[in-house]
Specification:
The structure holds two protein chains of two kinds. Chain A is of the alpha/beta class. Chain A has helices spanning 19-29, 44-50, 64-77, 95-107, 126-143, 159-164, 174-184, 200-205, 211-224, and strands spanning 6-12, 33-38, 54-58, 82-87, 111-122, 155-158, 189-197. Classes of the chains: A alpha/beta, B mainly alpha. The interface between A and B is medium-sized, with 29 and 25 residues.
C-alpha cells in the first residue's frame, strides 16, 4: 500500500506538559502533524513546534471544535488525502491511526471513528462509562446514527469527508455535530476498536460530567440557528 | 404626579433618540418614536391602560404593562443571542485567518518540498473564503 498523504490534527489548549511527547510520538510515524494551539496561556505552541509539528495559533480561546476546524482546513490546503484528529492529552495510541486508515481503505468508507467500547478502555471510571453510553443514545435519537462510541476524539476522515463536514460548533458539541453531518450527507462510517489510556492527566483534563448538559444545550441552540 | 413627570422625561428621551437614528434604521426609529409617544399618552391617561387591559381580559392596567414588558424582554433576549452568535462566527473566522496566515512550519517540511511557510515566502494570503 502506498504511503498516504495523511495529516494528523491535534487541538491543544494549555497542554504544554504533555503535547511535546504526544507530537514526538506522532511525528515518528506520521510526519505531517499540525497542532492548533487554541489560545493557550502556557508553552503549548512552543513545545509542539519544537517536537516537530506545524503550529497554528488561535489568538484567543475558541474551543476544541473551532481548533479542529482550523487544523482540518489547513491540512486540506496542504493537499491531505486523509486527516486524522487526535487528542492532545495522550490518551490515544499512535498505532491506532494505522488501524483506522486500514479500515477506511479496505471498507471504502469516508470516515473512520475509534471506539473505546469495541476496543480497550483501560481504567475508565464507571461514571464516565455511563455518560458516554447516554451520549450514544442521545446521538442515536438526534441523528439517527447508531454507533458504540459517539465521543471519541480519534477519527480519520477522507479529504472528501473533511470537505463535506463543516464544523460550526466551536466548543465540545462538535463531536455530535460531526456524527450529524455524517448522517445528513450519507457518508460511510466505520467504527474501529481503539485503545484509550486513562491517565490521571487525561482524566483531569477531560470534561466534567456536568458538561454533558452544556453539550446538549449547545447542540439544541445550534439547531435553532440553522 | 412626580412619577408621571419622570416617566415622561425618560420616554421623551427615547423618542428623541429614535428620531436621531431616523437616518440609519428607519423602521426601528419610527417604531421607537411611536411606542414612546403612546407610552407618554398612557402615562397621563392611566384609565385608558386599565380599559385596554379589561378588553383583553387582564384585571389591571399595571399587569398588562408587566406582561407586555416580559414579552418584550424575552424577545430581545433571543435577538441578542442570535447577534452574539453571529459575532462569535465572525471572531472565529478572523482568528482562523490569523492562525492560518501565521503558521509555524517546521524546517524539515520545507526541505521536503512542501508548501513553504508564510515566513519563508512573503507571498500574500489568497483572498476568498478559506474559512471552514
Amino acid at each position: 500500500m502506498a504511503e498516504a498523504n495523511l495529516w494528523v490534527v491535534v487541538a491543544g489548549y494549555n497542554e504544554g506538559r504533555v503535547i511535546g511527547d504526544v507530537v514526538r510520538g506522532l511525528v515518528a510515524r506520521w510526519p505531517n502533524v499540525v497542532v492548533v494551539d487554541d489560545g493557550s496561556r502556557d508553552n503549548t505552541a512552543d513545545e509542539a513546534f519544537r517536537a516537530g509539528a506545524t503550529v497554528l495559533s488561535h489568538p484567543t480561546n475558541l474551543g476544541q471544535g473551532a481548533a479542529l476546524a482550523t487544523g482540518i482546513g489547513y491540512a486540506l490546503r496542504r493537499g491531505a488525502d486523509y486527516i486524522a484528529t487526535f487528542d492532545a492529552d495522550g490518551q490515544h495510541q499512535v498505532g491506532d491511526i494505522g488501524k483506522l486508515l486500514l479500515a477506511l481503505q479496505t471498507q471504502g468508507a469516508d470516515i473512520a471513528i475509534g471506539s473505546r467500547f469495541l476496543g480497550d478502555a483501560q481504567s475508565m471510571p464507571w461514571s464516565r462509562k455511563v455518560v458516554l453510553k447516554l451520549a450514544v443514545i442521545f446521538t442515536w435519537i438526534v441523528t439517527g446514527q447508531r454507533m458504540t462510541d459517539a465521543h471519541n476524539g480519534l477519527r480519520l476522515l477522507s479529504a472528501h469527508a473533511a470537505r463535506t463536514i463543516r464544523i460550526t460548533q466551536n466548543r465540545m458539541a462538535h463531536a455530535s455535530e460531526i456524527i450529524e453531518r455524517i448522517a445528513q450527507n450519507k457518508l460511510k462510517l466505520v467504527e474501529v476498536p481503539v485503545t484509550l489510556l486513562y491517565t490521571e492527566y487525561s482524566l483531569s483534563k477531560g470534561q466534567p460530567l456536568s458538561n454533558s448538559v452544556n453539550i446538549v444545550l449547545e447542540l439544541l441552540i445550534g439547531r435553532l440557528q440553522r | 404626579m412626580i412619577i408621571q413627570l419622570i416617566l415622561t422625561g425618560c420616554l421623551a428621551c427615547v423618542a428623541v433618540y429614535g428620531w436621531a437614528q431616523l437616518a440609519s434604521v428607519r423602521i426601528v426609529s419610527l417604531g421607537l418614536m411611536l411606542l414612546s409617544s403612546c407610552a407618554i399618552y398612557l402615562v397621563w391617561n392611566p384609565d385608558l391602560t386599565s380599559r385596554l387591559a379589561n378588553m383583553v381580559g387582564v384585571g389591571r392596567g399595571t399587569d398588562l404593562v408587566l406582561y407586555l414588558f416580559l414579552v418584550f424582554v424575552l424577545s430581545q433576549l433571543v435577538v441578542i443571542h442570535v447577534r452574539l452568535h453571529a459575532q462569535m462566527t465572525l471572531i472565529t473566522q478572523i482568528a482562523r485567518r490569523i492562525a492560518l496566515d501565521s503558521a509555524r512550519v517546521p524546517p524539515q517540511h520545507n526541505q521536503a518540498g512542501e508548501a513553504p511557510s508564510p515566513a519563508a515566502s512573503p507571498e500574500p494570503p489568497k483572498p476568498g473564503r478559506d474559512v471552514l
